[in-house]
Design a protein that fits this description.
The protein has 3 domains: 113 residues, Rossmann fold; 186 residues, Rossmann fold (3-Layer(aba) Sandwich); 76 residues, Alpha-Beta Plaits (2-Layer Sandwich). It has 13 helices and 16 strands. A 7-stranded parallel β-sheet has the order 8-7-6-9-10-11-12, sandwiched between helices. The protein has a 5-stranded parallel β-sheet with strand order 2-1-3-4-5. Helix 3 packs across helix 6 and helix 12 runs antiparallel to helix 13. The protein is elongated, with a radius of gyration of 25 Å.
Amino acid sequence: MYKIQTLNKISPSGLEHFHSNKYTYGNEITSPDAIMVRSASMHEMDFSSDLLAIARAGAGVNNIPVDKCSEDGIVVFNTPGANANAVKELVICSLLLSSRKIVSGIDFCKTLKDEGEKVGPLVEKGKSAFAGPEISGKKLGVIGLGAIGVLVANCAKSMGMEVFGYDPYLSVDAAWNLSRSIKHAKSLQEIFSECDYLSLHLPSNKETKDLVNSASISSMKDGIRILNFSRAELVCDDDIIDALQSGKVASYATDFPTHKLIDVNGVIAIPHLGASTPESEDNCARMAVFELIDYLENGVIKNSVNFPDVDLPRSTDCRVCVIHRNIPNVLNPITAPFTAANININNMVNLSKKDYAYTIVDSDKYADESIIKQIREIDGIIRVRVL
């Protein structure tokens, strides 16, 4: 029986796929085989040696100590694309909000509540303060063409915008889904200098932190409107506030409010609603559950942030899964105990991701404890499982 600990409320449409004859789950589970989490911080948690995997029902994993997990052979999954449509819809909404001063107009109307019959004339008199341009025919730069960026680019194109996309790491799947009419920008500078609107769809790391700062803003078109629905760290708060006050940036819409951005003229601060739809929560939960089931039962890894994706169809009843460091001369010692025991290896796969690697061995006979013990003693081995 596999034990799954849930650190947050997880959608029942995902949990229902844990068959009761194989799994038990809940937030009171101790010494779990796997953990499901949404936003709860795990950095101060102590993990038992039983923990095999963590599945984040969402894309970001900043709340998970990924490096520590890698050292302990704990596979960390996320659910890329599961909330993509929800985020795309909010980005498109914010694209319009940033252009037409709709939020300010709504706030203005609230001030007229007690004006009685004067409301109509006051609306007509005041509406000119909230005029803004149409997006059709304007240029949008999309930086980061993952699951969300592709949807945003395609949707904006269908709304009449001229769309530029930039992603030096564009995946094959994303390329297939991207409209052929999206213009391929060869550099960030091309996006900055050409576009009237900018939408960010990037992870937060050392290379992307403060991507939007005083220097990059200075190379953008005057009056640019910037949308950030990826991570707060992509935009320097102080620099974007200065640019809004000077008029260099016309509007900044973000799903990541900070204390500096609250009530700043030109900032549309949204309380992290990108994935806050029932459909998104259901999709993320289902994907996370299936990832855990496939890994726990078959050793298959898909959508891991710290180990390579490895999918090997079962060819025998005995499967040995080995997590190890990505160092030379590991494979021969792994297979040697099978050979010495006159056990045939029917199928095998080995893949790596940065400092770590993962090997699956399907053998025609059961690998007993003596074989597993020999593998565990190999230099660089982190975890061995027999399925």
